[in-house]
Amino acid sequence: MSSPGQSPTPSASSERRDEHGQTKKRKITRTKNGCLTCRKRRKLCDLDRPDCGACVRLGLECRWPEPLGDRTRRGSTTHTLNPARSEPGAQSHRVVCQSPTVTRNGDTQGEWQANSMYDLMGIMGESPAPVGAIDDTVGTMQQPLSNGPLLGSNIVPVHHPTTSGMTPFALGDLDNNTLADPLASLLDGVMFDEATLQLWAAGCLAIPATQTIDPFQSLGDLLRQPPAAPDTFTSLGTQDRSKPPATHPPPRSSPPAVSPHHAHLLKHYQASLSSLVSCTGDSETAPSAFAAFTKLAEASSSSEAGQGLQLSILAWAGRHMVNQGEIKFETISDKLGEKGMKIVMDRLESWGRRGEQVTETERMTLLAGALMVISFKICRGDVWGFDTLNAYLKLLSDSLYQVNSPGAPPDSMPFHFFENLVYHDLTSSETYAKGPIVPYSVLLTYSNPSSDYLNTLTGACFPVFCRFNRIATLASQRRQKSRGQSTRRPGDESVLWSDEELYDLVSSAREIEEELNEDKKQMEAMVKNKPSLSSHRFLHEAYRITGFMALRSFVLCEPPSSFGIHLLVRQSLSLLEEMWEKNLPGLCSIHLVLFVTALCCCKSDSAASQDGETGGDADCQRIERLYENMRNDYAFGNLSRSPKIYREVWERNQQGKVHVDWLDVIDDFGWELFLV
């Protein structure tokens, strides 16, 4: 019979006798079924409702979660994920999330963090590639468990560098009902991949009402939403935590849910990135052609090519956000880009090398996907790995765009992709070294000089931009002949320039110059008939002047110190600075203009600068300022690559007295540069 001073609880009584008997005190752990007061005190509870023995003895208010029976039954069914429903091959890291104040037995804050992390399971999509679990105690890579269950004790526990020693949630904002969440025990065995960990650690993930781990379903659902739908996220503090989180993709018959980070990436692509890289901006009369990519992605979401296009769109948007300072999207962007690239390249290989039959729609989707992959790599600052893509783009171009075709209207989806293809073709350094992808005869079929339609990437100057196709062809011919001449054997006269070859090269350059002069008259007549195009004259004139500089430098090899080139450099810089000051249309497409201007500029020595012969140093400073403005405003990785090339040219051209082939510098670096 218990004495009045003892607790009526048998466990408490036994514990007190142990203390009085000088025995070692038994370790006390919290039970998830006890009252809230005992949980908070980390004491055992005798489960005697409505007032447990410990609370009666200490005179404390005994509080219980409501309803206890329903919550425990519901929670017990979700403690173990079904391995059969987990995606095969998906590899994640098992995380030990522990704040600096967590005790050996765990506390309220640690368990609440576990619940929050478990809820994030449904947000992350499938990992694009298996990632081995990293044991940070030994620094070795473990083999990925590609076919193992989602939960298991054989996974090496690791601390992710972005979550170590961090307390992301405030305990003071929680009430006792939140602390009593029976799902707190689900921390054991929960795994996340690197992308989810980075997003969670940066605080950018919120808990949606319903979740999905399928990135294709998420993007498809986003594309079906009306444009005016608000992008809302469920608050973490107001979410109904009595409902267990989704642990597998919803059935195909039900409408898929939206993943928050995918929604954020797609919103950035549609609302910010598309208009940023469009000469038309937010114009309603000439909307951005980048909407054609999302429309095609939605229409072909059931095919592998459509899925690759979807992932590549999200990857490009994510990389651009990273360049703007949103570092938390770096891992997810790289993962989406790698998986999207793999899907696109696998389908291209099946069609291009294995001869698999592919419909025209799928070929168009593969073209769009390849262009998005290139845009992602350019934005990331990649300067390698474009050779295979260029080869497949050549095959796609020959298959989809032919000389005998009737062409396409400028506001159609095929023409939007064609313009994007031509733009990346004629701004690639590989084009000037080996020749363009799209033949000039095909350009004539799809280019309408009299059209006043505003294109997305070239504005009103698509015809004059197409002149760079012939300039690149002449530059590659001159380069190949010159390289053969420099490596010729004694007595081999076949590699020397003959009189006919020199005449053909120079006469072709003069012919293009005459066409550039005609383009100016054509533009003036167009502006006269349609005054609203007057602001687009600047980009047209900038491309026209760049054509003259490219002919004299890339084809005829004139040195930068010549007065003809120096005058063109001054005219180009004045145009670019005026466009920048007035924020005129086409600033997004001036990288090629600025780069060619920089190549034709020269750094003068101190004596020449004082005498005012060329003023090259002042011109170089103007170029550097324009490049800095572009890096700050457009945040593309390639804008930090191209200055290394023209600065090396400046170092080699002896204050502009000798011609230096910039393609030789590119070869020395081993790069392929896109001037977009």
TrEMBL record:
GO biological process, one term: positive regulation of transcription by RNA polymerase II
Pfam families noted in UniProt: Fungal_trans_2, Zn_clus
Domain of life the protein comes from: Eukaryota
Record keyword Metal-binding present: no
Residue span of region Disordered: 1-29, 67-93, 221-261
Gene Ontology MF term list: DNA-binding transcription factor activity, RNA polymerase II-specific; transcription cis-regulatory region binding; zinc ion binding
Biased composition (Polar residues): 1-13
Main location, first listed in the record: nucleus
Cellular component, GO, one term: nucleus
Composition bias type Pro residues, residue spans: 246-258
Cellular localization per UniProt: Nucleus
Occurrences of domain Zn(2)-C6 fungal-type (ranges): 34-64
Keywords: Nucleus
Residue ranges the record marks as coiled coil: none
Protein name in UniProt: Transcriptional activator
Taxonomic classification: Eukaryota, Fungi, Dikarya, Basidiomycota, Agaricomycotina
